[in-house]
């Protein structure tokens, strides 16, 4: 279970995205938060900016879609060049069909759960996925406090992954920082999204290295 650190550009300067991507050299993926002002009460960016970012950086893009009607839009992010596309199960009418379509188009398929969405109803879907994202804040904004009430869900999900002998990665997103990453790793997460903890630091690349060292402990 290799640790991966994915800085979230939600906390970066949107007018300097190419430079902000360069500032986190050594990161495994660049986490791109797509928000539509409907699924969450915030609006960020869409397909054209993802296409530009793909050209601007060698770091693969981990697109987290916080948008309604994921069935319709997620495939466009694969076509835009994202290496991994995460849709919210709460926003997908046909998550199995969508995960298969994302994989068929050549990206890693990932599904996200909001804090109030349990993992248990989706146990049988896990083999269809390359990654599962457990939100550790209510999606919509960076810089929120980590919800430690999500730790049991992370633990139960790791157990389900092991029980089925699956390879899928377990990502956590929201409030991940030097003070919370060790609890997440201990509970079984292996992919860590960090926005404010990376871009709010004086040296973002050093923050990535420090978070990685902590998660590997
Ligand atoms: C929140 C986004 C996160 C956000 C995390 O809805 O999905 O990716 O950027 O920001 P921090 O790490 O500051 O909580
Ligand atoms: Zn995110």
How would you describe this structure to a colleague?
The structure is a single chain. The chain is an alpha/beta fold and 217 residues long. The protein has one domain: Aldolase class I (TIM Barrel, Alpha-Beta Barrel). Helices cover 34% and strands 19% of the residues. It has helices at residues 17-22, 47-56, 70-79, 95-104, 151-163, 181-187, 196-199, 204-216, and strands spanning 4-7, 30-35, 61-66, 84-88, 108-113, 131-135, 169-173, 191-194. Strands 1-8-7-6-5-4-3-2 form an 8-stranded parallel β-sheet. Helix 3 links the parallel strand 3 (61-66) and strand 4 (84-88). Helix 3 (70-79) packs parallel to helix 4 (95-104) and helix 6 packs parallel to helix 8. The two termini are 13 Å apart. The mean pLDDT is 98. Catalyzes the reversible epimerization of D-ribulose 5-phosphate to D-xylulose 5-phosphate. Its EC number is 5.1.3.1. Belongs to the ribulose-phosphate 3-epimerase family.
SSE layout and pairing:
Layout (H helix, E strand, L loop, with lengths): L3 E4 L9 H6 L7 E6 L11 H10 L4 E6 L3 H10 L4 E5 L6 H10 L3 E6 L17 E5 L15 H13 L5 E5 L7 H7 L3 E4 L1 H4 L4 H13 L1
Parallel strand pairs: 1-8, 2-3, 3-4, 4-5, 5-6, 6-7, 7-8
Helix pairs in contact: 3-4, 6-8
């Amino acid at each position: 279970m290799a640790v991966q650190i994915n800085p979230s550009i939600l906390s970066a300067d949107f007018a300097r995205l190419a430079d902000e991507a360069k500032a986190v050299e050594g990161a495994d993926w660049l986490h791109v938060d797509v928000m539509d002002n409907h699924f969450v009460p915030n609006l960020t960016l869409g397909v054209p900016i993802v296409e530009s970012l793909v050209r601007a950086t060698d770091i693969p893009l981990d697109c987290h879609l916080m948008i309604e009607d994921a069935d319709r839009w997620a495939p466009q992010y694969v076509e835009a060049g994202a290496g991994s596309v995460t849709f919210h199960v709460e926003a997908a009418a046909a998550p199995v069909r969508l995960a298969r379509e994302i994989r068929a188009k050549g990206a890693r398929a990932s599904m996200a759960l909001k804090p109030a969405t349990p993992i248990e109803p989706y146990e049988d879907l896990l083999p269809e996925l390359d990654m599962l994202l457990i939100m550790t804040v209510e999606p919509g904004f960076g810089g929120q406090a980590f919800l430690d009430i999500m730790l049991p869900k992370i633990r139960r999900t790791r157990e389900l992954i092991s029980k089925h002998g699956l390879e899928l990665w377990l990502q956590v997103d929201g409030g991940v920082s030097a003070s919370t990453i060790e609890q997440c790793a201990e509970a079984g997460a292996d992919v860590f999204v960090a926005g404010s903890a990376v871009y709010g630091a004086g040296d973002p690349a050093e923050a990535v290295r420090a978070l990685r060292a902590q998660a590997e402990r």
